[in-house]
Design brief:
163 residues, alpha+beta, 2 domains, three-stranded mixed beta sheet, 5 helices
Length: 163
């Protein structure tokens, strides 16, 4: 594996972890030349590609990077680490591959992202939900925010808003 920093091909594996259902192995590596650490992901090669069926019935190839991109936008300037974003993407991917073989609806993917994001950061959850659910009016958004506030207060999590 080439080091992304110095491009040398001399490294050692420091730590390996398997996802819950064993579809992805995360390896923490250290370059033996520049001593920097980096992470690689190892996946099983599959002969078929999973397709996502969108609302308009069109089909696009499944792309984990789209999930991560959406999470990064929702978590922008929030106290959510890159590691937490990766964990949410891992859980979503596990949900998908546990339940579907060839096609998955975009609705399932979006709901899974929201389910996993909701427990990490309520503001990021609201951001993601506002784009994903495409609220018809402000009342729907306010209702979703109110529900998230009530859940945060009930669970003892920090308040979403001071006031």
């Amino acid at each position: 594996m080439r080091c992304p920093f110095c491009r040398e091909d001399h490294d050692r594996v420091v730590d390996s972890r398997s996802s819950d259902i064993g579809r992805v192995i995360r390896r923490r590596r250290q370059c033996l030349v520049c001593k920097k650490r980096f992470t690689t992901y190892e996946k099983i090669g599959e002969s078929f590609k999973l397709c996502v069926v969108k609302k308009d019935s069109s089909r696009v190839p499944y792309d984990r990077d789209k999930i991560i991109s959406g999470l990064q936008k929702a978590c922008y300037k929030r106290p959510v680490s890159v590691e937490q974003i990766q964990q949410v993407a891992d859980k979503v991917e596990e949900d998908i591959f546990k339940n579907f073989d060839k096609e998955v609806s975009s609705a399932f993917v979006g709901e899974s992202v929201m389910k996993n994001l909701r427990g990490i950061d309520k503001v990021a959850y609201i951001r993601f939900a506002s784009v994903y659910r495409d609220f018809d009016d402000a009342g729907d958004l306010i209702e979703e925010v109110s529900q998230a506030i009530q859940e945060a207060e009930y669970s003892g999590q920090p308040k979403l808003f001071d006031g």
